[in-house]
Amino acid sequence: MDPILCASHICKSFIGVRALNNIDITINAGEIHCLVGENGCGKSTFVKCISGVYEPDEGSIEINGRVYQSLTPVEAMKNGIQVIYQDLSLFQHMTVAENIAISKLKFEGNRIIDWKQVKSIAKEQLDKIGVQMDLDKTVGETSMANRQMVAICRALAQDAKILFMDEPTTALTKTEVGHLMKIMLELKKQGLAIVFISHKLDEVFTVADKITIFRNGNKIGDFESKDLNEKSLSYYMTGREIEYQRYHRVCKDNDPILEIDNLTRTGQYENVSMSVRPGDIIGLTGLLGSGRTELAMSLFGLNPPKSGVIKVEGRVTDISSPMAAKKCGIALLPEDRFNQGLFIERKIKENISSALINSICKKGIVNKKKENEIAHKYVDELKVRTPSVDTVVGTLSGGNQQKVVIGKWIATKPKVFIMDTPTVGIDVGSKSEIYEQIHKFADSGMAIIFISDEIQEIMANCNRVFILRNGQCVKKLEEEDLGQNGAEKMIADLISSRVPEVSAEEAAQ
Ligand SMILES: Nc1ncnc2c1ncn2[C@@H]1O[C@H](COP(=O)(O)OP(=O)(O)OP(=O)(O)O)[C@@H](O)[C@H]1O
Ligand SMILES: [Mg+2]
Questions:
Q1: Residue of the nearest CA to atom 2 in ligand 1?
Q2: What letter does residue 248 receive in the DSSP assignment?
Q3: Are 74 and 55 in contact (CB under 8 A)?
Q4: Which residues are found with C-beta within 5 Å of the ion, ligand 2?
Q5: pLDDT digits 0-9 by tens, 467-505
Q6: Is any atom of ligand 1 closer than 6 Å to the C-beta of 215?
Q7: All structural domains of the chain with their residue ranges
Q8: Interval between CA 13 and ligand 1 midpoint (Å)
Q9: pLDDT tens digits for 220-245?
Q10: Of 108, 338, 384, 391, whose CB neighbour count within 10 A is largest?
């Protein structure tokens, strides 16, 4: 394999944090190279050092026969380095074709736009990845998966030689992830180098040729993908063996906290009924678009149902706003945490205390001592990796930002905590810590509605499971059903559109 980029001895520190310590990485053409490691171990910082967003404190980058101490973003692009960040950085109001072609044309210094050329550039790139798309639609009107394709094509249009993809799969359905992986493998065949970051180890093993493992800003090693498995990889990442403990409800209180009866919002979900007791961890599963997030939003007063009844502690309740939901003891960890869950420019302590600001505020003045105490408690409990509670949330790594949102809502001590995909973007080690915490909260009488499409985590953490498909509840599973052989596969079949295999006995019934 031909080395296309050699990073040597890269070091980068921020105030109070050594984010990268002497990192050497060689990237080869025609290879998919995965970077893995716990939240905050330095993966995104490495990408930013290579692409010219950050200037490394030490080290060098060799590319196309030249050695740079640091690259500017333009130099990086001229050398064929392209990065697709999680937010994709697309122009929502411009068309698919414009988004794909604009950077190339701008780069070439064109002052007059030839619209035919815009479309032909876009079409050529889409052809490269074998995708058809309406070129005249605005990006805002297309699905998340299609936006991802637009971002890839924009990079290809600029002659990408190395494509960095920092957690590109977090907002995609399983089918879409499969499609993306196929495209990555095709691009690799065409000679592109891809650097891929994901916390989902099954994805890593599907595509990786090489895997570089980071821990705490250090490189643990470079491995051929075939020399690792999920267990050994998790061990190298965290320094310990990870095992997820299965949850069993121990709470004795059987009076439901939350009941919903035939709740319907036509076009989103229909006739959903469920009864939630203290200590229940209810798995709500189904793919993106199954109605699960819309239902969660309705229970938090953000998406009023058209019909049906919600009862809180036995009383019919109209949850018409998040304020009303909060008063009833309902909290929501939103799916889109970056936009809906955090004040990104404020400190950790201000974020954590924000949902209970009324209780720590007197005559408009925040009790700083209490604010600090609360922030320390949840930063410690959730093991947020940060130099201090005074750190601005926007400078934390993606996974640690998520832990801050969880801490913020847990601090309100909700009776019912709806968690929409709480572990997306969280590393395997922190996941097990978050699961442990969730089990503790449930043991102490909190009820949890746990939304996820990761079947293993649903199986390990939930004592009851509701499966939604196209807005309908297609199956309810109780604790005894979940203990049966084949439960995992049945859930997988029901979630996807595949028809579940039916046993001879069932068929005869
Ligand atoms: N602009 C910044 N200012 C201060 N600290 C920063 C900044 N960017 C990153 N850091 C710190 O550097 C460390 C590495 O962060 P980085 O974002 O690279 O982690 P990561 O491996 O990508 O984690 P994740 O898996 O959670 O995305 C973290 O401790 C983070 O808080
Ligand atoms: Mg990151």
A1: 395
A2: -
A3: no
A4: 44, 398
A5: 998 888 989 999 888 888 888 888 888 876 543 333 444
A6: no
A7: 3-238, 254-329+414-509, 340-413
A8: 10
A9: 999 999 999 999 999 999 988 888 88
A10: 384
